[in-house]
């Protein structure tokens, strides 16, 4: 539990250090997320892509909503299971959320072994992400999320996406998916600063989604 408390404390500290436009946008995103949480309850559905150790999965689950959480890193998934695995309203999926079904390499930080509980949050399918170790890939399952979303045949109140760069191809695919309109709010952590090759595509996606009303897409979360 100390790890989860530390993560919350660090997030609060980093948020307090932000200034200017970025700070205003980030705080507005956090307020929007808290508002979205307040509207969840039994009978609603929230999805957590990139659940990591379950900090936000647990917050979503505490509302009484049904929660589906994806996490591909085996170490993170074991901590996620320990945290929320016994909750009856939570479904955990040990896989990456991607464009299509398949297998994919997952990369970890070069210093992963020094503090695995903390370093899992950086694991990515992009070997060129900052501080990744391209020499030790871990093959994991990937589930095609557009088809998964269509198969749910259900409204999604909140979709949280923190998948270390893979948000770009996924959102590109979801914008072509009619069922994406069944999602009310999307909260994304983007990673163009640490995967520079994604910068132009991320800017384009932000422009395309800026005026959407269904779903409402927030790129300033975290």
Automatic annotation (TrEMBL):
<dbReference type="GO" id="GO:0032259">
    <property type="term" value="P:methylation"/>
</dbReference>
<dbReference type="Pfam" id="PF05050">
    <property type="entry name" value="Methyltransf_21"/>
</dbReference>
<keyword id="KW-0808">Transferase</keyword>
<dbReference type="InterPro" id="IPR029063">
    <property type="entry name" value="SAM-dependent_MTases_sf"/>
</dbReference>
<dbReference type="InterPro" id="IPR006342">
    <property type="entry name" value="FkbM_mtfrase"/>
</dbReference>
<keyword id="KW-0489">Methyltransferase</keyword>
<dbReference type="GO" id="GO:0008168">
    <property type="term" value="F:methyltransferase activity"/>
</dbReference>
<feature type="domain" description="Methyltransferase FkbM">
    <location>
        <begin position="48"/>
        <end position="192"/>
    </location>
</feature>
<protein>
    <submittedName>
        <fullName>FkbM family methyltransferase</fullName>
    </submittedName>
</protein>
<dbReference type="InterPro" id="IPR052514">
    <property type="entry name" value="SAM-dependent_MTase"/>
</dbReference>
């Amino acid at each position: 539990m100390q790890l989860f408390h530390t993560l919350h404390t660090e997030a609060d500290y980093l948020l307090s250090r932000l200034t200017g436009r970025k700070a205003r946008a980030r705080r507005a995103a956090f307020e929007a997320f808290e508002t979205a949480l307040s509207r969840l309850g039994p009978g609603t559905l929230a999805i957590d892509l990139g659940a990591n150790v379950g900090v936000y999965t647990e917050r979503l689950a505490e509302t009484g909503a049904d929660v589906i959480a994806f996490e591909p890193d085996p170490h993170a998934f074991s901590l996620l299971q320990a945290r929320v695995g016994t909750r009856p309203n939570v479904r955990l999926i040990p896989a990456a959320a991607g464009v299509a079904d398949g297998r994919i390499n997952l990369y970890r930080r070069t210093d992963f072994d020094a503090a695995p509980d903390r370093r899992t949050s950086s694991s990515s399918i992009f070997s060129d992400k900052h501080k990744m170790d391209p020499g030790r890939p871990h093959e994991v399952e990937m589930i095609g999320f557009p088809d998964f979303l269509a198969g749910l045949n259900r409204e999604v109140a909140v979709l949280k996406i923190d998948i270390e760069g893979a948000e770009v191809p996924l959102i590109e695919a979801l914008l072509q998916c009619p069922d994406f309109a069944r999602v009310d709010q999307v909260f994304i952590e983007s990673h163009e600063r640490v995967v520079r090759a994604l910068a132009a595509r991320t800017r384009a996606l932000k422009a395309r989604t800026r005026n959407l009303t269904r779903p409402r897409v927030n790129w300033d979360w975290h």
